[in-house]
């Protein structure tokens, strides 16, 4: 999607990691020639107006001080400093004065982020003895430190959701960089944006409805990185193609109308801003993701050869074989099918409600009619198929639940699933959809932990081979519990 405009704000030195203040200024770190540490310029914290005016320096250390984040009330400044010989989290007044360390471990503490109420701080830490990065929490005065993640994978670049209930972060648990979330209360994790590509640097809008992040292709490099915006639950991702690559470290302005980011220019990193189009800047969910329209009544097929075909789709249904089961999708609920790998038939299907499913498309040929003639196009020759909105189906049945699949897909489902049967203490009990708040399944799918709406919890062995689900689109799935990470009440449309 093309955005209105991108403009450079800071070009002096090498400047990176912008973050907004509550009154609409940008703080960032910058390496300037005049600040020396053993003949090498040190990074320090600076502030500038959103129009590039009034730039001034906040810290003047002889050691690197970087990654600044101003507290929600605008009174305090968090940053990383190497003044004590290791990377530690420091806090200062908003003008950079009266700086003191919050951490003093010999390892690395990095990438701090505030909770929306300003009471807590999340950060990534790497122990001196080695291992991997984990996420840690502490109060704003440095007390009450506790480890939030304990996996062998690296968990980095945390971003607190404004609700305070969850934190998005980057993980390499799947062998590449993906985005996950963790529940601050109980430690449950869930995929947020998972694909073969690299996804990093999550950032939530101030109202909590949108997620910005950076993506580059699986076979590409970080120099190919571009910013994307999705719904806060990771659905309906849209590329912001007006930002020059590489574009990293996106940050939302307080009013949600602008993204700041860092871009590498000819002389070093620069701070840029990007004005967002109204359909992204305004509230509400993003829909019709990645749609490339050829006209109000035209379906469009982009071919791998570079050609584009336009016409009227003659296929009434698409058959998709996913990792968790086969699904048949009526043409009316599909907006886009993206064939983004070289593997024949491997596709990502975006639905009209913003959900996306991935798998192998079993339709061997797509039929487009134009000028009184119908043309069959082999699927292996298509890069992307975008369908017109005309005749789009209605909202479909209510979908109070979201199914989180182990392959990274996340889809809304109705309450029309059979009661979950669990064997608890030698007895079999049934839990109806009306009672469920969230169900977490083990990787083998043989056990489940159920949080009930009453506040109680039930754990036991899962009885039955498959769980039938009805998607919000109306399509039916029959899923083995081992394919499900969780089934949770969505709390919204």
CATH architecture descriptor text of the largest domain: 6 Propeller
The N- to C-terminal Cα distance equals 24 Å
Shape: globular
Low-confidence spans: 288-296
Computed structural class: mainly beta
Can you tell me about this structure?
- The chain folds into three domains: 5-281, TolB, C-terminal domain (Neuraminidase); 299-386, no CATH class; 401-489, no CATH class.
- Strands 28-27-31-30-29-34-25-26-32-33 form a ten-stranded antiparallel β-sheet, with no helix packed on it. Strands 36-35-44-39-40-41-37-38 form an eight-stranded antiparallel β-sheet, with no helix packed on it.
- It is built from one helix and 44 strands.
- The chain is an all-beta fold and 493 residues long.
Give a brief rundown of this model.
This protein is an all-beta fold and 493 residues long. The strands form nine sheets. Strands 28-27-31-30-29-34-25-26-32-33 form a ten-stranded antiparallel β-sheet, with no helix packed on it. An eight-stranded antiparallel β-sheet has the order 36-35-44-39-40-41-37-38, with no helix packed on it. A four-stranded antiparallel β-sheet has the order 1-24-23-22, with no helix packed on it.
Relevant terms:
globular; Neuraminidase; 1 helix; mainly beta; about 500 residues; about 50% strand; 3 domains; 44 strands
Structural topology:
Blueprint: E1 5-10, E2 14-20, E3 25-37, E4 40-49, E5 56-57, E6 65-70, E7 76-81, E8 88-93, E9 100-101, E10 108-114, E11 120-126, E12 134-139, E13 146-147, E14 155-160, E15 166-171, E16 178-183, E17 189-193, E18 198-204, E19 210-216, E20 226-231, E21 238-239, E22 247-252, E23 258-264, E24 269-275, H1 278-281, E25 299-303, E26 308-313, E27 317-322, E28 325-330, E29 334-338, E30 346-351, E31 356-361, E32 365-370, E33 373-378, E34 382-386, E35 401-405, E36 410-413, E37 420-424, E38 427-431, E39 436-441, E40 447-452, E41 457-462, E42 467-470, E43 476-479, E44 484-489
Antiparallel strand pairs: 1-24, 2-3, 3-4, 4-5, 6-7, 7-8, 8-9, 10-11, 11-12, 12-13, 14-15, 15-16, 16-17, 18-19, 19-20, 20-21, 22-23, 23-24, 25-26, 25-34, 26-32, 27-28, 27-31, 29-30, 29-34, 30-31, 32-33, 35-36, 35-44, 37-38, 37-41, 39-40, 39-44, 40-41, 42-43
């Amino acid at each position: 999607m093309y955005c209105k405009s991108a403009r450079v704000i800071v070009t002096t030195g090498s400047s990176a990691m912008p973050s907004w203040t509550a009154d609409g200024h940008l703080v960032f770190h910058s390496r300037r020639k005049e600040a020396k540490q053993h003949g090498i310029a040190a990074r320090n914290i600076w502030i500038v107006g959103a129009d590039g005016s009034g730039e001034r320096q906040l810290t003047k250390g002889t050691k690197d001080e970087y990654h600044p984040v101003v507290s929600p009330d605008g009174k305090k400044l968090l940053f990383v400093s190497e003044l004590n010989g290791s990377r530690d989290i420091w806090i200062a007044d908003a003008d950079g004065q009266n700086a003191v360390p919050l951490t003093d471990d010999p390892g690395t503490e990095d990438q701090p982020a505030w909770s929306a109420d300003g009471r807590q701080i999340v950060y990534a830490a790497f122990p001196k003895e080695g291992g991997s990065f984990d996420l840690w929490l502490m109060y704003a005065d440095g007390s009450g430190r506790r480890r939030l993640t304990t996996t062998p994978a690296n968990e980095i670049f945390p971003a607190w959701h404004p609700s305070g209930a969850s934190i998005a972060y980057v993980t390499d648990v799947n062998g590449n960089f993906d985005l996950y979330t963790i529940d601050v209360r109980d430690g449950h994790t869930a995929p947020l944006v998972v694909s073969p590509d690299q996804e990093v640097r999550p950032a939530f809008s101030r109202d909590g409805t949108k997620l910005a992040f950076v993506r580059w292709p699986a076979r590409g490099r970080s120099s190919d990185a571009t910013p994307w915006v999705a719904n806060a639950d990771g659905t309906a991702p849209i590329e912001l193609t007006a930002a020059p690559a590489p574009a990293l470290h996106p940050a939302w302005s307080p009013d949600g109308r602008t993204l700041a980011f860092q871009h590498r220019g000819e002389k070093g990193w620069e701070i840029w801003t990007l004005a967002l189009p109204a359909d992204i800047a305004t509230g509400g969910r993003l829909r019709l993701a990645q749609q490339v329209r050829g006209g109000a009544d035209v379906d469009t097929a982009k071919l791998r050869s570079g050609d584009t075909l336009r016409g009227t789709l003659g296929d009434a249904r698409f058959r998709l074989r996913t990792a968790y089961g086969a699904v048949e999708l009526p043409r009316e609920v599909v907006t886009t099918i993206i064939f983004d790998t070289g593997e024949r038939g491997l596709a990502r299907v975006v639905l009209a409600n913003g959900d996306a499913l991935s798998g192998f498309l079993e339709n061997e040929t797509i039929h487009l009619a134009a000028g009184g003639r119908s043309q069959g196009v082999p699927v292996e020759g298509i890069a992307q198929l975008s369908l017109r909105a005309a005749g789009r189906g209605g909202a479909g049945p209510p979908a109070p639940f979201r199914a989180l699949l182990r392959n990274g897909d996340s889809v809304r489902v109705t309450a029309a699933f059979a009661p979950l049967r669990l064997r608890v203490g030698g007895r079999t009990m049934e839990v109806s959809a009306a009672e469920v708040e969230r169900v977490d399944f083990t990787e083998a799918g043989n056990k489940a932990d159920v949080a009930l709406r009453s506040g109680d919890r039930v754990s036991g062995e899962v009885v039955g081979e498959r769980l039938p689900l009805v998607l919000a689109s109306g399509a039916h799935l029959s899923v083995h519990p081992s394919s499900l990470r969780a089934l949770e009440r969505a709390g919204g449309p």
